Amino acid sequence: MRNRTRRGWRRYINTINISAVVIALLTAAPIYWLFASSFKPSAELGSLPPTLLPREPSLEHYREAFGQYSFGTYMFNSVLIALTATAVVLLLALLAGYALARLPVRGKGPMLVGLLVISVFPTIAVVTPLYLLERSLGMLNSYQGLILPYIAFNLPFAVWIMRNYLKDLPFELEESARMDGASVTRTVFSIILPAARPGLFTAGIFTFTACFTEFLMAMTFNAEDRFRTVPVGIALFGAEFEVPYGTIFAASVVAILPVAILVLVFRRAVVSSMTAGAVKG
C-alpha cells in the first residue's frame, strides 16, 4: 500500500481540517454569544443589528443574578449536591466495577444488561412515585432528597465505565499483591485505585455534569427557594411579564464554569480513559 503524504497547502486545507474548524465554530459561537451578551447593558441586548462586542461592558446582570435572585445560594446547592453524589457514585462504582471486571462473580451478563437498562431509563417515568415516596419519608425540600436519586440514576453508567476500564488492567498487579498477603479491599484501594484514576476522572466528570445540570427532579422535589439548584433557579428568573435575558446570560456563564474547569483540568485523563483498550499492544 502506497504511503501518501500531503504536501504544501494540502497539509492544512483539506476535508478533515475544514470539518474540524466548522464544528469548532458551531460549538463556540453560542458560547461566545452567551458570554458577550452577559456584559451588554439591557438596552443593547435588543438592539438591531446585534453587536458582536458590548459597546459599554457592564456587570449589572451579574449583580442582579447574585443580589436580586440569590444565585449564589443556587450555586452552593448545586455544587454541594453534585460533589456529594459524585463522591458516593465513584466509591461504589470502583468497588462494583472491580468485582464485575476482575472477580469470578456469577451472573455478570444479566447484571451488566440490567445496569445498561437502568442507565437509559427515562427519569420522567419514575418522578411521580419518587415524589410520593420522598413525601412520605419527609425528604422533600432537602439535600438528601436529590442526592439519593442522583446516586441511583448515575451509578449504573459509572459502573459501566469503571468495569470497561478495569478489565484491561494487567492481572499481574493483583497477583503481586496477593503474594504479599493483601486482602481484596487492600488490593483495590492500594493497587487498583492509583491505576484506575483516569477511569475515575471520566466517570466523575460525567456524573458531576449530570447531577449539576439535572432539572426535572430538582424542580419536582425541592420547591423551596433555599434548596433550589442552578437549572431550576435560572428557569424561574423574572416575573410573569418579564424575562431578564441579561441576568439569565450572566448566571449561565457562571454556571458553566465548574464543568469547564473540570474538563480542562482532567482532559488528558478523560481522553486516556476513553481510548483505553482501543489499541492492543
From TrEMBL:
Membrane topology: Multi-pass membrane protein
Keyword terms of this UniProt record: Cell membrane, Membrane, Transmembrane, Transmembrane helix, Transport
GO CC field: plasma membrane
Record-annotated ABC transmembrane type-1 domain positions: 75-266
Keyword match Ubl conjugation: no
Subcellular location: Cell membrane
Protein name stated in the entry: Trehalose transport system permease protein SugB
Source organism (scientific name): Arthrobacter saudimassiliensis
Taxonomic path: Bacteria, Bacillati, Actinomycetota, Actinomycetes, Micrococcales
